[in-house]
Amino acid sequence: MERLGIGGNNPPEPTPHDAFTAHIGDLFTEATHFLDGEPISTEGQATAVSALLDQIRKASKDADKARAEEKKPHDDAGKAVQAKWKPLLDKADLAVNAAKKALAPWLLKVEEENRAKAEAARKEAEAKAEAAHAALAAADTSNLAAQAEAEALVKEAAKADKLATKAEGAKAHATGGARAVGLRSYFTPELTDPAAALSHYRATQPGALRAFLVTLAETDVLNGARTIPGFEVIEERRAV
After folding, report:
1. I want to staple 132 with a disulfide (CB 3.0 to 4.6 A). Which of 144, 156, 157, 217 is the partner?
2. Contact criterion met (CB below 8 Å) for 122 and 165
3. pLDDT for 141-195, tens place per residue?
4. Which pLDDT score, from 0 to 100, does residue 146 have?
């Protein structure tokens, strides 16, 4: 005698996904019989396709409702985790932003001091290089002392150049933690001459400009516009 497995005499109910997989699959198969590329030529065909369309719409709506119901516990769990952690992260972000704002004026001051030091070091290096060049040009090749003095000036000029280069590379940093806090440049465009900007982007990014204009026109059409300078508003009749 064959033994029945667990649930063998009472199979589990199909899940909503299983049920809609079968239902929508059947509707799709039925649709392939009507929608085979041949145009609808009779009122009966139109009625049948309209009825099938209604069934498919209802099945799709019901399936999406079942999907939302199945997904809801996961969404609720995610929202609960977000609600639990967001206040802590927001508080940390608030402190981080406040610390950055407090450090910015100090870092800008240090940056300006570094810039002034670098300019002074570069001027000194240039002056020493000029003096060394003049000494070499004036030194008598037969005068050993003059040659030695000129060579010493050349070495001093080279040393000054290295110091100036180092000063020019100095960054303003606050190094109290594992990661140094510094300054970064952020650039924000501000429109001052729309005509010049339009001319520039017409020449450099015509495709992007065209897409932007089409987006503006599409919004106007959705809001009821039927005449737009530079555009032809085309009417197309579709089944709904």
Report:
1. 157
2. no
3. 888 888 899 999 999 999 999 999 999 999 998 888 888 999 999 999 999 999 9
4. 86
- Residues 77 and 23 reside in one and the same domain: yes
- Number of independent structural domains in the chain: 3
Which domain range does residue 154 map to? 103-168
Q: pTM of the predicted model, to two decimals?
A: 0.67
Contacts of 231 (CB under 8 A, 6+ apart): 217
65 and 111, same structural domain?
A: no
As given in the structure block, the two tokens for residue 20 are 């809609």
Identify the residue whose tokens are 């516990």: 73
Q: Are residues 164 and 109 in the same domain?
A: yes
* 42 lies in the same domain as 79: yes
Residue 106 confidence class, pLDDT cut points 50, 70, 90: very high
CA nearest neighbour of 20 among 51, 49, 62: 62
Hey, which residues does 174 pair with through a beta bridge? 181
User: Are 111 and 69 part of one and the same domain?
Assistant: no
Helices 206-222, 194-204: axis angle to 10 degrees equals: 120
